[in-house]
Amino acid sequence: MNVNHLNTMAAKSISHKLLNCETIGETAIPYVEPNVHPNNEIKDIEAVIQKSKASGLSCCDMTTICLSSITIIGAYFACKNTILINSDQYGFIVDSGNVVFLKPGWHFVGYPLMNGLTTRDINSEIIQVNNLQIIRIRQDEVGIAYNNTTLEVLMPGTHLRTNGAYTFIRKQKIRDDLVEGPVKIKTVKTGTVCICYNNGVAEILTEGRYAMNSNGFVIGGTLDITQQNLKFSKHRVLLEGGINMLIEGLLTYQIKDVAKLVKNVDINSLNRYLEDVMKADLTKVFSTIHLEQIASTTYNEIKKSDERAAETRLFIYESIMKMIKPQADQWGIHIQLPT
User: Fold this and answer.
1) Is the separation of the CB atoms in 214 and 27 below 8 Å?
2) Which of 30, 23, 33 has its CA nearest to residue 150?
3) What domains can you pick out in the chain, each with its CATH number?
4) pLDDT of 9 over the 70 cut
5) pTM of the model
6) 18-66: pLDDT as tens digits
C-alpha cells in the first residue's frame, strides 16, 4: 500500500442534523422525511391515499340503506353493513381493488365491490393493508426500506406508502451503526480510529460520526489509540551458562502514527506481532546474562536498592529498547518504559 494514498478524513460536510453525522463523498444519503404530520394525520393520509370515505353517512349511503330496509332481510343487510370505526382505530376496506381509508366514525360498507374490511389500532407502528403501508418511526430510530430497488433511510415520524413494490425492511436505533447496501453510518468513539477503504485506498476516520453512500467504501476495524498494556504468558529463556528460566512480560505502548501502522502491519494481529518481537528480543538479551547477575530471587522481585541488580535491570531495559525501538518506530508505536 502506498502511504501517500493513506488519508485521514478531515474535510467533510455536515449532512443530517438529527443523525449528527458528516457525509463522506459526493453522493447524498437517501434520507426521507415523513409525509404524514402528527397534527394533521387524517388529512395527510387522505391526501396520499386519494381515496377515502368520509365519516358519517352520505346521501348515497342513506339512499342505499333506505332502499335496502324495505324488507326485513334488507334491513338486516343495512344494519350489518353499517359499521362504527372507533376513535382509537383506523378502518380499511378494498373497493374495486383499491384500499379505501375509513376514518373514525360511522360508515356504510355494503356496496357490491367492497370487501376485506379491517381495522387497526390508530397508534400501531406498522399498518399494512394490501399495497398500503403506514410506518411509524420513533424519535430515537431510523427506518430502512426499498422503493422498488431504491434504498430509503426513513427519518423519525409517520410515513405512508401506496406502492405495491415498496418494502419496509427494519427499524434501528439512531445511535447504532448502520450498514445497508451502499449506505453506511459509523460512529468512531473518542480514543479510537476506524480503518476504512475507499475503492481500495485506506482512509482513517478519527472520532466522530460519519455517513457514506458508496459501494466502494468498506468499513474496516476499529483501533484503540489510547495507552495499552500487553501482558504475555510465561516465556522460557536460556541464560548464559545453559540455565533455563521462565519470565513474564508487560509491554506498555501507544499508537502514535496510525498511517505507518496500517501501511506496515495487519492491525488485527498487532498484539501477536508485538508479543513475538518482545519474546525474540528477551531471548537474545537473557542469553547474555549469568544466573548470578539475577541472584537467587526472581526477576520481578529484584530490589531497586540492590546496586548489582539495578545494573542488570537497566541493562535489560536498555537492551530491549535498543532492539525494539526501530521496529516500533517503523510501526508508528511508542513504547513506554516501566517506572
Assistant:
1) yes
2) 30
3) 3-27+182-224 (no CATH), 38-173 (no CATH), 228-336 (3.30.479.30)
4) no
5) 0.72
6) 778 888 888 889 999 999 998 999 989 988 887 444 444 444 454 454 5
